[in-house]
Write a structure and sequence with these properties.
By secondary structure, this protein is an alpha+beta fold. The chain contains four helices and two strands, in the order αααββα.
C-alpha cells in the first residue's frame, strides 16, 4: 500500500530519502494499528504538504484504544492483579 500512496501523492514523492523513510515507518505503524485494532470497516488516509514538512492522518471509525483494551482483557483474562 505504501508504494501506491507514495507514488500518487506529490507531498511524499518530493521528500528527501531520510524524512521519507521516517514518514513511511510512522504511516505504516499507524495504518496497521487502525486495521488490526480499530474494528472499523473503513480507514481514510490524508497527506498534506505543510510549511517545513508533511502532515498525514489515518482516520478510522473504530472503537478506540481503551475500549479495545477493555474488551480484550475481558475476552482474554490472562492478567493478574498484583498487590504491593
Amino acid at each position: 500500500m505504501w508504494n501506491e500512496i507514495a507514488t500518487q501523492h506529490k507531498a511524499i514523492a518530493g521528500l528527501p530519502a531520510a524524512p521519507r523513510s521516517i514518514v513511511h515507518y510512522a504511516f505504516t505503524e499507524m495504518l496497521n494499528n487502525a486495521i488490526e485494532h480499530s474494528s472499523s470497516k473503513d480507514v481514510e488516509v490524508r497527506f498534506d504538504r505543510i510549511p517545513g514538512g508533511l502532515a498525514f492522518e489515518v482516520i478510522d471509525e473504530g472503537v478506540g484504544v481503551f475500549a479495545h483494551l477493555r474488551k480484550s482483557s475481558v475476552s482474554h483474562p490472562t492478567s493478574r492483579r498484583l498487590r504491593s
